[in-house]
Specification:
hydrolase; Rossmann fold; EC 3.1.3.48; LMW_PTPase; 4-stranded parallel beta sheet; Ptyr_pPase; protein tyrosine phosphatase activity
Length: 161
C-alpha cells in the first residue's frame, strides 16, 4: 500500500453491515486483486445502524461468496462514524434509505462522496436487502454489477499513481 499518494479509499454502507455492504467490500476487493490493483485501494464496509455491531457476516452472504471463492473471514459489523467522511473518497450505500442515514450521520456531502452503488451501473436502482428477501443470488448479481461500474468509473476519473 505504501508508495501511492492517491490510494482510493472506499467505504461500502448498508443498514446492518452483515449482508450487502460486506458483500460489496469483499467482491470489490476480489475484483481489484484479480486485476493486480489491490495496493491502490483501501476498502471497508460499515452500518448505519447499531443493531448488528460486532456480529459476523450473515450466513447467506458467507455462503454466496464461498460459492464464488471469496472469503469474508474476520469481518464483523461496525458502525459508520462522522469522521469516515474525511477518511474515505467514496461512501457507497446500497439503497436510498442508506443514503438518507449516511447523510444523517455525516451531516452534509460538500465533496460529493456519497453515492448509491448501482448509480455506477447502466441501470441505477436500489439493491434489495437479502435479510428481508432471502435472495442472496440476486443481491450478489446486483453487487457485482455495481462494483464493476464503480471500478470502471474510478479507472476513468481518478489518478491511481
Amino acid at each position: 500500500m505504501k508508495g501511492y499518494k492517491n490510494m482510493i479509499k472506499i467505504l461500502f454502507i448498508c443498514h446492518g453491515n452483515i449482508c450487502r455492504s460486506p458483500m460489496a467490500e469483499f467482491v470489490f476487493r476480489d475484483m481489484v486483486q484479480k486485476q493486480g490493483m489491490a495496493d491502490l485501494f483501501s476498502i471497508a464496509s460499515a452500518a448505519t445502524s447499531r443493531e448488528e455491531i460486532g456480529n459476523p457476516v450473515h450466513y447467506g452472504t458467507v455462503q454466496k461468496l464461498k460459492e464464488v471463492g471469496i472469503s469474508t473471514s474476520g469481518k464483523y459489523a461496525v458502525q459508520m462514524k462522522k469522521q469516515d467522511y474525511h477518511t474515505y473518497d467514496y461512501i457507497i450505500g446500497m439503497e436510498y434509505p442508506n443514503i438518507r442515514n449516511i447523510l444523517r450521520i455525516i451531516g452534509d456531502d460538500p465533496e460529493h462522496k456519497v453515492h448509491k452503488l448501482l448509480d455506477f451501473s447502466d441501470n441505477p436502482r436500489d439493491i434489495a436487502d437479502p435479510w428481508y428477501t432471502g435472495n442472496f443470488d440476486r443481491t450478489y448479481k446486483d453487487v457485482v454489477e455495481g462494483c464493476e461500474g464503480l471500478l470502471r468509473y474510478i479507472l476513468e476519473h481518478d489518478r491511481l499513481s
